[in-house]
Amino acid sequence: MKHIAVIPGDGIGKEVMEVGMDILDAVSEISSFDHDAEFFDIGSERYLKTGELVTEEEFDSLGRKDAIYFGAIGDPRVKPGILEQGILLNMRARFDQYINMRPVTSWHPFVPLKKHFDFDICFLRENTEDFYMGAGGVMRSGKKVEVNVKRMLYDLRMNVDPVSLPDDDFAFEIGLLSKRGVERFADHVFKTAEKRGEDKVTLVDKANVCTHIYGMQREIFSKKAEEHGISLDFMYVDAMAMAMIVRPHTFGTVAVPNLFGDILTDLGAQLQGGLGMGASGNINPEGVSMFEPIHGSAPDIAGQGKANPIAVVLAAKMMLDHLGYEEMGTLLRNAVRKCLDEGKSTPDLGGKLTTKEMGNEIKRAVLGL
Fold this sequence. Notes:
Elements: E1 2-9, H1 12-30, E2 35-39, H2 44-50, H3 56-63, E3 67-72, H4 82-94, E4 99-105, E5 120-126, E6 136-140, E7 145-150, E8 155-160, E9 169-173, H5 179-195, E10 200-205, H6 211-228, E11 231-236, H7 237-246, E12 253-256, H8 258-271, E13 279-283, E14 289-293, H9 310-322, H10 326-341, H11 355-367
Parallel strand pairs: 1-2, 1-3, 3-14, 5-12, 10-11, 10-12
Antiparallel strand pairs: 4-5, 4-13, 6-9, 7-8, 13-14
């Protein structure tokens, strides 16, 4: 029995999660995968009523689960950053989910490129450091600012003592990479490449400008490449964005720091057919991991049945793989492919099916009906 925490979240997250759970129930009907689900009321509605984001009791309960299945977060009534940092980034840091895995696959005929490319890119994004640490603030000359960063690996405190002439206000955001953080990230990247049967890893950065933070990362990755006997290519993030458009088929396992990874994988989602096709896993190989579609809460279409549930289904596929049910994960992917081949899709892909109808079609394919 696998114990799954379910967080539908906001907006279309609730709609697609209903489909996702229905699909998981279908998988349980035809396989040895057995699960129970505990739903958590974490999201904007509760925050607006109570001011609570994630309670300590919830953190304790979530940490005892085998996996977390997440919908979407975001609400225009809440200031940007509060929900994202207070819930998503907080959970990733609290559970030390230091790998964000985002597959980018050519879901034809929805790839919006003039040339026909078949590609299967596995983006591995470092998920707890870089410029997404919340290490920032506003400072003024003569007023000290303390910056605290707490992770599983360390508890870091820095004091900023600014002096400015002329006096002015400054906003700052600090990007940090720890040696141990990069080492474990690199090890996971090269092990993933080995599992995928690849002999090359591409590391994306901006080391020509951010020389300290990404220079150290390059040194560590180079040593790890030698240890694993895998070649290593370097790409600047701007060049990588261009290359993804003109030669996506030349990339396999791609490692990328947190900020650039967020941007490039959204580009990757569009390459494979749009955000409705993008799934991700926030991975802690030794702890609880969280699986989610990469799209947001889309309040403009929430409640209208227009949301594409494929991303949440593919997130379930990743969760099944992670839990040791790779055969069932493959079955889910094949079910999605079958539906698309038969012309069944939601409006974002040019179809006419509602969220629930699309879910029912995928379920039928899973059950072989």
